[in-house]
Write a structure and sequence with these properties.
By secondary structure, the chain is mainly α. Helix content is about 35%, strand content about 10%. It is elongated and about 50 Å long. Bound molecules: iron/sulfur cluster.
């Protein structure tokens, strides 16, 4: 790596323990949603309610690809008869982050439901969650309004509004 690169200049003076630790160092510039006056949802909305043991009651089993003995895909079932999104595959780790703290949601049931909706639509949960978080920040800053969201309150944590996206 070029000794004068931006990466080296920013990181080396502050840490000797490698990129993982340096990324958490408070002196490293962070993403725009940590700016003063805005809600840093990554730091403020994580909750124990999203911990793995709270998914366990909804884990109905595991499945996998054809003839694979590993069966690494977790299944979910929230026991909601007649609800198309009450059961499905996942969620996996990244989905939990994207539809949890990344958009301010603290209900495991909402995370599972958004996961199932994305799977049904064939959407990638990681990029969908990131895009929604970006839209929420734009809404928070007043750069988009209800006029742009067809009347939806796109506030952090409003999983009901996310479900109504067209
Ligand atoms: S380990 Fe998982 S993803 Fe890989 S083949 Fe088996 S079931 Fe499929």
């Amino acid at each position: 790596m070029n000794r004068n690169s931006v990466w080296i200049c920013h990181v080396r003076p502050r840490t000797s323990t490698g990129p993982a630790a340096s990324a958490r160092a408070p002196t490293i510039p962070r993403t725009s949603n940590t700016s003063p006056g805005t809600k840093n949802n990554q730091l403020t909305t994580w909750t124990d309610k999203l911990d793995a043991e709270n998914i366990t009651p909804y884990r109905s089993g595991m499945t996998g690809c054809f003839r694979c003995p590993v069966n690494c895909r977790p299944l979910n079932d929230m026991k909601m008869p007649g609800d198309r999104y009450g059961s499905g595959d996942g969620p996996e780790y990244v989905t939990l982050g994207k539809f949890g703290p990344n958009i301010g949601v603290d209900r495991i049931e909402s995370v599972i439901r958004l996961n199932n909706i994305c799977n049904d639509l064939g959407f990638d949960t990681a990029s969908t969650g990131s895009s929604i978080a970006w839209a929420m920040e734009l809404y928070q800053r007043g750069l988009i309004t209800k006029q742009h969201t067809q009347g939806l309150e796109l506030t952090w944590g409003n999983a009901d509004a996310v479900e109504q996206f067209d």
